Amino acid sequence: MNAVTRFIALASAAPLLAGCAGAQSMFSPMAAEADRVVLLFRVMLIGSCVIGALVAYCLWLACRGAEDRRRMFGKESVVFRLGLLLPVMVLTLLLLWSLRLLGRAGQDTEPDLVVRLQGEQWWWRVTYVRADGSEVESANELRLPVDADVLLELSSADVLHSFWIPAWAGKVDMVPGHTNHLRLRLAEPGIVRGQCAEYCGGAHALMRLYGVAMDPNEFTQWLARESGPAVATTQTQGREIFVASGCGGCHRVRGEVAPGRVGPDLTHLGSRLSVGAGLLPGGVAALETWLARHPVLKPENHMPAFAFLTDTERRALALYLASLQ
Ligand code: CUA
Known about the structure:
This protein is of the alpha+beta class. It has 8 helices and 12 strands.
């Protein structure tokens, strides 16, 4: 291999290696569930490399080997054993082991926390079920305490979606009219990213979410605040535009005149990490950008364009939304 070919090979491998770590990678596991996925991947990768090398060696022997070797590989019994029996045995063992490894460990015990996640085109409805049975609704961000047994109840409001935060666990489908379960126990605090992993229509690739693993005390405080109504806002002009534009027909802001349930709950939108389901970072500027350009930034999303708003009105509306802490 000359220097140029070597450089091209290395350069083309670099992006692949860069994808192996980070906030949305199964190679940076933060829970036992994700550790098991990584183990399964490694065993399968190494196993398939070994089997691939063996097949290549046998092929070489059958084509270029000594006369007796070639004759041996021509026998029907050898083809039957190596070509049928061996793959069936290897795949059966792998299947049994993977079922055991990724099985329903801990499914029978009482969880510390239940969270319902519903996939919607193209965002995530997140409902925390508190110990007293009361519910707290949020969106596009899943906050969980570390060192707690969490039960996620996953479903869909419309079409097939798939919940996937690679650093936490493997994919679980979200099926309309059916609830799938995922048990999680997060090991360390941190912010990671997830993505819908099942094609669900136009904006599928832009259906993202943040996963936030928190210290248990911090989580309790956060949930207590999240369960309350929106704080009284000083952004009265933006609030008036919100009401007059009919935003409350689809969005709910608890404590305000906004009962809508079609779109994401906006009660504490200002304290979320992102706008548009992981599309833009949180904050006034991002909210302004979203309000101005969301049909272009996230094509096919179900929110009307609100093109009649002037720049000043849009700014005021963004300031109001950001004040919903
Ligand atoms: Cu939801 Cu893809």
